[in-house]
Design a protein that fits this description.
It is a single chain. This protein has 229 residues and is mainly beta. Helices cover 10% and strands 67% of the residues. The chain is built from 1 helix and 9 strands; from the N terminus they run H-E-E-E-E-E-E-E-E-E. Strand 6 and strand 7 form a beta hairpin. 24% of the residues are buried.
Length: 229
């Protein structure tokens, strides 16, 4: 009986020693960690609707400022764009928008009324944004255009001339993902539309401030994405 007990203890000791040696021989390996995906994926095409209010910074004719902050009114239109999210935090995009507008100013002197009116406007811009969760803070800038009409009326007569203005714009905004595929934005822009000649005699240019709100639908919305470890 004593010999049998000693043999059993010896076998257990040998087995434990072999197991420990096997563990010591194996190198320690850590499970691979999957990269963390951005919480929201802004990449892809989007379309939207927007509208807001605009007012002129100044109106110039032949190099002389003739009015200040007189041109004002509302506008509404659409937006189309594409985003590339090239890191968890940074987003680059291209965006184009166009709007019907009613930014106008008029003055009457000695029975003659002069009216200046921006009837449509838009832009093609690049955007650079910083993504923080569902929010995207961005700056943008690029080309801006406006269709403007000048009208003169009085004593039963009326004449008008329309010109296409081309210039530049810069601004900034905030966009927020409030539901899958849907975002809302608020944006400020400054646009200088340059000068054009009216009635073959009057050089007229204007710069405009705008504040707009909008809603966008994102076709390739990818988030939120659950991070993997």
């Amino acid at each position: 009986m004593k010999k049998l007990l000693l043999a059993s203890v010896a076998l257990i000791a040998l087995a434990s020693s072999a197991s420990a040696a096997d563990l010591a021989a194996r190198p320690y390996t850590k499970a691979p960690v999957a990269p963390i995906s951005p919480a929201y994926n802004w990449s892809g095409f989007y379309i939207g609707a927007m509208g807001g209010y605009g007012w002129s910074s100044d109106v110039t004719t032949n190099g002389v400022t003739v009015s200040s902050s007189d041109l004002k009114g509302g506008f509404a239109g659409g937006t189309i764009g594409y985003n590339w999210q090239f890191s968890p935090s940074w987003v680059f995009g291209l965006e184009a928008d166009a709007a019907w507008a009613d930014l106008s100013a008029s003055d009457t002197v000695l029975g003659i009324t002069l009216e200046d009116k921006i009837r449509s406007m838009g832009s093609v811009t690049g955007r650079l944004g910083y993504a923080a969760g569902p929010a995207l803070l961005y700056v943008k800038g690029g080309w801006a255009w406006a269709n403007n009409r000048v009208s003169v009326s009085g004593f039963g007569q009326s004449v008008s001339d329309s010109q296409f203005h081309s210039g530049w714009t810069v601004g900034a905004g905030l966009e927020y993902m409030f539901a899958p595929s849907w975002s809302a934005k608020a944006e400020y822009m400054y646009a200088d539309y340059g000068k054009e000649t009216y009635f073959n005699a009057l050089d007229l240019g204007t710069s405009v401030h705008t504040i707009k709100g909008g809603i966008n639908y994102h076709f390739n919305w990818g988030g939120p994405v659950v991070a993997k470890y």
